[in-house]
């Protein structure tokens, strides 16, 4: 169903992974989707499958509409230029999905804080938290014009339980607090701001790490509880179409619980429960 027909959406960091899955689902629901990232055709990092052009090609192939715009969201001028283009072409922005993330550039392990490389700060805060903040800074004035909309921050959250990696825990909770703070400031504008937590997704890099692909992941025992990247996309679509979305604004949401509440499934028909941290 085209529940989002006529809506304008921006999904940052949509070359692959959750961003790509969200972009595809938003387009399938009828939204015009701007897809951003740094990877474009002919300019791929080693071991980084996918790019924004390929995402839009898949959108169009599925009957949707969208545009690929190369943008480094850590760069102020790049980000401002992106929003200026959306303003010029559309005059509005209804859905913003802040998904850009640079935190996996280094291996994320469970060593103690003082044993971890300080470079984690740059990858997780400069290329993650600050990049999402910067996009908000330029996009929010455009969204406020029409006094409604939805901002999503993809993050990880499980009842504020500690995530084993210090930097990862700190940065993901910073995104939760960013969303919570903005929800207060945007309440009068009718713009909902929601931190959204997926489970263990079968991203391209996860599948590669287990030497498999989307067609054969069921053959890998360790991947049985995983979810596709389209699952979080369906959660975003359900939230964006909810007339009572403001009731959830500022409240962290987990994709698995949203599937139960809104009645959607993953692409294989399963309702995958949320990923929970053990006590």
Automatic annotation (TrEMBL):
It holds the Pfam family adh_short. InterPro entries: NAD(P)-bd_dom_sf (IPR036291), SDR_fam (IPR002347). SUPFAM superfamilies: NAD(P)-binding Rossmann-fold domains. Signal peptide: none annotated. Coiled coil: none annotated. This is Oxidoreductase. It comes from Paenibacillus durus (Paenibacillus azotofixans).
């Amino acid at each position: 169903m085209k529940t989002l027909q006529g809506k304008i959406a921006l999904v940052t960091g949509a070359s692959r992974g959750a961003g790509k899955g969200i972009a595809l689902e938003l387009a399938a629901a009828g939204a015009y989707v701007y897809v951003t990232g740094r990877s474009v055709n002919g300019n791929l990092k080693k071991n980084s499958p996918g790019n924004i052009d390929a995402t839009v090609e898949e959108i169009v192939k599925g009957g949707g509409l969208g545009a690929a715009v190369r943008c480094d969201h850590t760069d102020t001028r790049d980000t401002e230029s992106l929003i200026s283009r959306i303003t010029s072409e559309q005059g509005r922005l209804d859905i913003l999905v802040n998904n850009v993330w640079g935190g996996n550039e280094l291996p994320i392990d469970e060593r103690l804080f003082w044993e971890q490389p300080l470079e984690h700060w740059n990858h997780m805060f400069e290329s993650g938290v600050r990049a999402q903040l910067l996009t908000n800074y330029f996009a929010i004035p455009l969204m406020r014009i029409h006094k409604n909309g939805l901002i999503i921050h993809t993050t990880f959250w499980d009842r504020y339980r500690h995530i084993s990696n210090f930097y990862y825990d700190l940065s993901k909770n910073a995104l939760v607090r960013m969303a919570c703070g903005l929800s207060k400031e945007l309440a009068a504008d009718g713009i909902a701001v929601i931190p959204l937590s997926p489970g263990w997704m079968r991203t391209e890099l996860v599948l590669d790490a287990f030497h498999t692909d989307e067609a054969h992941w069921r053959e890998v025992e360790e991947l049985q509880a995983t979810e596709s990247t389209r699952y979080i996309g369906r959660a975003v679509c359900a939230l964006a179409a909810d007339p009572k979305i403001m009731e959830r604004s500022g409240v962290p949401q987990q994709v698995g619980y949203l599937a139960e509440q809104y009645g959607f499934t993953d692409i294989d028909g399963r309702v995958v429960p949320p990923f929970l941290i053990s006590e």
